Amino acid sequence: MGNNTEQEEEFLLNHSQNSTKGGLKTIPFIIVNESCERLASFGLQPNMIIYITKFYNMDAARASVLINLWSAISNVLSILGAFISDSYIGRFRAVAIGSISSLIGMLVLWLTTIFPQLRPLPCGQYQHDCNGTTVAQLATILCSFGLISIGAGFVRPCSIALGADQLENKENLDNERLIDSYFNWFYASVGVSIVLAVTVIVYIQDHFGWQVGFGVPALLMVLSISVFLIGSPHYIKAKPEGSLFTGLFQVAVAAFRKRHINVQLNYNDDCYYRAPESMLLEPSTEFRCLNRACIIEDPHMELKPDGKASDPWSLCSVEQVKIMKCFLTVLPMWSTCIMLLVSFSQPLSIYQLLTVDRHITHQFEIPAGSFGMITVLSLTIWIAFYDRALVPLLSRYTGLPTGISPFSRMGIGLFLGILATVLSAITETIRRNKAINAGFEDDPNAVLNMSSMWFVPQLALYGVAEALNVVGQIEFIYSLFPKTMSSFAAALYTFGLAVASLINSLLVSVVDSITSTGGNTSWLATNINRGHLDYYCWLMTFLCVINFLYFLAVCRFTDQHHHDGRSSLFPEAEEEHSSNKRFHGA
To answer: Exposed, middle or buried: residue 4 (CB in 10 Å: 0-12, 13-18, 19+)?
Structure first.
């Protein structure tokens, strides 16, 4: 048995390497491209608020809103980029266009550090010109952000799928195992890239200045494009075949066009349009109004001679209707994670860290922008600990292969998120009181006699909360959809990040506007010693508690239809995911 397995692996490896197009030989080019893009773009984010407030004379609240909008646009464009790639231009062109767009954006950003004309005059030299940012100067920085967002929107969703295209070989029974191995290596490389971004790139910016700190990411994008294009002759360049999101819109449009149909009537199986080899004979009774989309009114007008739909915007298959119903089913549960994602993005947190002692030794000081590593490490350690130690133990008592149900994981994650926001509020209260007692109320740059280790517990809790809630949510979504649609869970999570960034921008704007009325100091003032960031943290805690109660209500409703996160909408989905849902979730 072992010899047969080794022979199969050897055959698969040789087959891939000897293939004219695709195969394992193309994977390094794709992984290097993705890794360099992540390393470059994620390396720009931690310190960007400092660059904007210092060189573009924005207050901290406005800068935080701008960065959150940048993040939201990048995530929305990831969904749009996947749609354009799948429907029109293909994955290779999408990755190439995205890489070039990111490079141009980073070059524009780097040029703002080279030429003083692209930045407003510093406040310290000419106080009357402190807010004198011209339209051209603002347009330059926004253009760089936009180009980087477009690049991320094309590269991130399409790069992993392009790699999977290179390994697709249906003749080999072991092909799925090879693709799973590729996913492992791909996500591992992404993780390493993010770690290097928030440590090495941030360190370079802190110690060698903005010109070098922004120049290195641009050089990394040059390397990314060069390596990707070198492998171009060897890629399998699959043609676009349409997007899942198009099918969702088609169901909505078809159901609206046939709104005159009475869905209360009993239709036989022949009245429903089904895809070839479909296991579904008729649509479910949930969201019955959508069943109109798959009802055949006139076979001669709506069907082609080969049995396919003449107009997919007027007649959809039972499977498409089921997918739309799954989408509507997961929306309430999906919405419960947004507030947790909002709480992760605490505004002005980097200013807090700049005021405390970050020295590990007398010579080495941790960059303020690198403390996000604590969240990443706690998330990684918890996932490994849960999967290897807790799951086998909990499975003995619960009988579930994942230890506890997705609902339980999500709930525990939300509760830990609440504890993390409480800790952040308490820590900021202690930090602010120390600053005022030391006479630093008007000196936000003063370093307090307070260790940065005070911030470690809350950052670690955020990591564990994300590991539990987000991974549990992805696992729940996977249990509803068949394996062929596994990318849908990632798309929903990406869209959740975009919505969370938009809510964060709105929340910061509203709080800053309300608390600064009447000449009062804003809670989110750039001088955090005068502001009240602790009040903002308590507000976030209150919103997270409300969100937790909303989650409990959604659980009560959802569990009545989908016990333990499983669904009967696609009976084959549970069997497909039983062996690998934990891997995909992680």
So the answer is: exposed
pLDDT in tens, 521-574: 999 999 999 999 999 999 999 999 999 999 999 988 876 555 444 444 555 444
Distance of CA 190 to the CA centre of its chain: 13
Give residue-wise pLDDT tens across range 354-367: 999 999 888 889 99
Contacts of 439 (CB under 8 A, 6+ apart): none
Cβ atoms within 10 A of the Cβ of 142, count? 14
CA-to-CA dists, residue 211 to 47, 104, 117, 142, 481, angstroms: 13, 16, 15, 18, 47
pLDDT digits (tens, 9 = 90+) for 247-261: 889 999 999 999 888
- SS3 label, residue 359: strand
How far apart CA 250 and CA 316 sit, in angstroms, is: 7
Give me the DSSP letters along 193-248: HHHHIIIIIHHHHHHHHHHHHHHHHHHHHHHHHHHHHHTGGG---PPP---HHHHH
Provide the token pair at 80.
């749009």
Q: What is the pLDDT of residue 125?
A: 45
Distance, CA of 124 to CA of 115 (rounded, Å)? 19
Residue 334 pairs in a beta bridge with: none
The pLDDT score that the predictor gives to residue 483 is 56
DSSP summary character for residue 520: P
Q: Is residue 459 a contact partner of residue 411, using CB atoms and an 8 Å limit? A: no
Enter the tokens of residue 18: 């000897």
Structure tokens at 105: 């954006």
